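hiii so um. not sure if this is the right channel but i have a protein structure encoded as tokens and i wanna go backwards to a sequence. like what aa goes where. can anyone help
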């Protein structure tokens, strides 16, 4: 029997459930499948080399090593994880820098009309800042993707020094997503046998103390109940956190993480999957798996960063693949939303919506140059009739 058929039978036989949460009440019995996207087909590339659906336009807001337009701030190399924050009558887009030793994060502030008001550094001299996540109280968690990596809490508006949050665990951090209902922060780990964690702070809104727990389930389980167990030594030395709890479930390279209305979605690049953790029922399911798509038809490969909308659409960026951001709709359709041409040696990072959902930001980490140092990075904005 062909591999995809075997895997499909295994998943369905395991009883993959409909996804919980109000956002996915019309969920499908199984993983997302290719279909017509809500915005229609992609048009020929625009002047920025981006294929978009009808009604959408793009602009470049920053290039690595160049001043952000209208400011004196040099944009960082290798832009990675990002998020948007309301700020007065405008908003701020924050972006990490995934380079060694000097990584950190920068911010671009926009006025109410979308013009760039300022740009500045909010975190400096940290190591390979890959992804992270916003908090409900308006800070940005910037995560180091190195062994014994740290989480830094930063303030998007500037004017306050970042604070190290080592109580959140020392491991190869990737992304973070806050769950205000259970008052925990979910954390992914970018290792080939990485784990999925949650940080339980002693006081919600204060990340300086608390417990780190790891998700536990049978190694081969893709759908079913899970439990959480405290990690004995969050500092991860001499035994890495992912190897301290025998029952911990391991994932093939944790990447993006997004929480909404009872469900935490996270991606794993080693097997091209999007997972759905039902925080209410404490169970794990698959939202997307390219091996469960008919041969040659998988539109989404190289899964990486992920974000979502209030209406329940997920947007998943590709690291490689054919340099697309794909949308996964609440009714289980996966389709390309945009495609970058001429940048096959790069990866798409930092997808995030402005607070009102009308503008969408992302970066090409190495741009058209493909330079591994990320000196060719480009950060974009897309506007159009987004579903909200």
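sure thing!! here u go:
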């Amino acid at each position: 029997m062909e591999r995809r058929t075997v895997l499909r039978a295994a998943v369905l036989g395991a009883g993959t459930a409909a996804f919980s949460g109000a956002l996915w009440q019309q969920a499908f019995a199984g993983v997302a499948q290719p279909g017509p996207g809500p915005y229609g087909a992609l048009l020929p590339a625009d002047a920025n080399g981006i294929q978009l659906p009808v009604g959408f336009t793009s602009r470049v807001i920053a290039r690595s090593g160049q001043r952000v337009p209208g400011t004196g701030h040099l944009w960082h190399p290798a832009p990675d994880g990002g998020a948007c924050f309301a700020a007065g009558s405008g908003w701020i887009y924050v972006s990490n820098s995934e380079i060694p030793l000097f990584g950190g994060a920068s911010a671009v502030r926009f006025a109410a009309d979308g013009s760039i008001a300022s740009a500045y550094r909010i975190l400096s001299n940290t190591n390979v800042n890959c992804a992270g996540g916003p908090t409900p109280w308006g800070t940005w968690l910037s995560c180091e993707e190195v062994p014994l990596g740290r989480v830094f809490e930063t303030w998007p508006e500037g004017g306050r020094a970042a604070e190290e949050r080592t109580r959140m665990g020392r491991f190869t951090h990737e992304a973070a997503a806050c769950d205000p209902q259970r008052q925990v922060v979910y954390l992914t780990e970018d290792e080939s046998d990485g784990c999925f964690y949650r940080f339980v702070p002693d006081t919600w809104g204060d990340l300086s103390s608390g417990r780190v727990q790891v998700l536990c389930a049978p190694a081969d389980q893709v759908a079913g109940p899970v439990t959480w167990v405290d990690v004995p030594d969050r500092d991860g030395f001499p035994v890495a956190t992912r190897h301290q709890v025998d029952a911990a479930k391991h994932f093939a390279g944790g990447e993006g993480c997004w929480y909404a209305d009872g469900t935490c979605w996270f991606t794993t690049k080693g097997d091209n999957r999007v997972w759905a953790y039902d925080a209410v029922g404490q169970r794990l399911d698959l939202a997307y798996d390219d091996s469960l798509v008919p041969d040659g038809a998988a539109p989404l490969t190289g899964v990486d960063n992920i974000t979502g909308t209030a209406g329940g659409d997920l947007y998943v960026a590709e690291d490689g693949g054919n340099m697309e951001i794909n949308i996964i709709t609440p009714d289980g359709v996966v389709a390309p939303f945009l495609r970058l041409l001429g940048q096959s040696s790069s990866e798409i990072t930092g997808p995030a919506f402005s607070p009102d959902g009308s503008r969408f930001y992302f970066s090409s980490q190495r741009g058209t140059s493909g330079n591994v140092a990320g000196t060719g990075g480009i950060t974009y904005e897309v506007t159009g009739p987004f579903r909200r």
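oh and DSSP finds one helix and 28 strands in the chain.
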